Amino acid sequence: MSEILDVSRELKAELDKLPLFIEYKRVKALFETNSELNELRKEIVRAKNENRLEDHKNLLEKYNSNPLVQNYDCLSEEVRDYLLELSRVINQKWFT
Questions:
Q1: Given this model, what pLDDT does residue 27 score?
Q2: Which residue from 21, 42, 43, 78 has the least number of CB within 10 angstroms?
């Protein structure tokens, strides 16, 4: 079992060196700490809880059109696709 853990740690270390993962982590940190987006998320929830549907829709459109949100979403999808492909390759190699 420790061999699997060691290989997993090595794989993670190698993934962390890839430009895609470096950029993802950088953008994720910006996304999570952006005060404008954090405030907008609160306003979206507040509008929904107060049943202000038109405000909720407008705030959500504003949020989703933010370049940082779009960049983060795009990178998240690329990382997910990369990891899914990696998983397929590993599973194919181990189970065939």
A1: 98
A2: 42
Contact 63, 37 (CB under 8 A): yes
For the chain, the first-to-last Cα distance in angstroms comes to 21
DSSP string, the chain: -HHHHHHHHHHHHHHHHSHHHHHHHHHHHHHHH-HHHHHHHHHHHHHHHTT-HHHHHHHHHHHHT-HHHHHHHHHHHHHHHHHHHHHHHHHHHHH-
Question: Amino acid identity, residue 15?
Answer: L
Tens-digit pLDDT profile for residues 41-75: 999 999 999 999 999 999 999 999 999 999 999 99
What predicted TM-score, i.e. pTM, was given to this entire model? 0.86
